[in-house]
Amino acid sequence: MKRTAVYPGSFDPVTNGHLDIIHRGLKIFDQIIVTILDNPAKKTLFTVEERIWLLKESLGDIERIEVDSYNGLLVDYAQKRQAHALLRGMRAVSDFEYEFQMALMNRRLNREVQTVFLMTGLRWIFTSSSIIKEAAQFGGDIESMVPPVVQKKLQEKFGHPAKP
Ligand code: PNS
User: Fold this and answer.
1) What is the pTM of this model?
2) Ligand 1 centroid – CA 36 distance (Å)
3) What 3-state DSSP class applies to 121?
């Protein structure tokens, strides 16, 4: 049986921390569907189309990875895609409560879908899309935290010139 995991998130934008989880997830699962929640009510910096493009550009051509978007319940999407696992990264203790709540809710909604957590690599423990956006907005150096294509797009969005 093919072991497929769904890796859901906002990915606004994708960071090196996300890529680390995806690459390590490939050691456990045969296929990973990286999927973006398409929620028009949530204000994001990048559109769903931009976020999909940034993910695809950052991941390159890996046969076992698919990039997609969804709306509605995550467990319904996972079932539709015949995935039995939800993959999530866990950073510091501050993530725990939110992740625990979400995993328990998803389990209550569908007992066939298991949530699997990977601890974020030490290098990315303080990396989050929100903090990166804030730093980028004021011209901060975010080069080591995001793929080059994301760095370029953030600089374009905030009107800062690329540093040499
Ligand atoms: O990257 P994020 O914003 O922490 O990801 C959260 C996400 C998108 C995985 C979560 O909000 C989600 O799946 N929402 C879809 C609606 C749903 O299924 N809710 C029930 C579980 S909380």
Assistant:
1) 0.96
2) 9
3) coil
Cα-based angle 100, 45, 163 (whole degrees, multiple of 5):
110
Q: Exactly one of 18, 51, 133, 153 is catalytic; which is it?
A: 18
Spans of the chain below 50 pLDDT: none
Residue 74, in any domain of the structure: yes
**164 Cα–ligand 1 center, Å:** 38
**65-75 pLDDT, tens per residue?**
999 999 999 99
How much is the pLDDT for 161?
65
Q: Residue 20 C-alpha to ligand 1 middle, in angstroms? A: 20
Total structural domains within the chain: 1
Q: Assign residue 100 the CATH number of its domain.
A: 3.40.50.620
Is 121 within 8 Å of 17 (Cβ atoms)? yes
Active site residue 23: no
What does the block give as tokens for 144?
Answer: 């080591």
Q: Does residue 18 carry a catalytic annotation?
A: yes
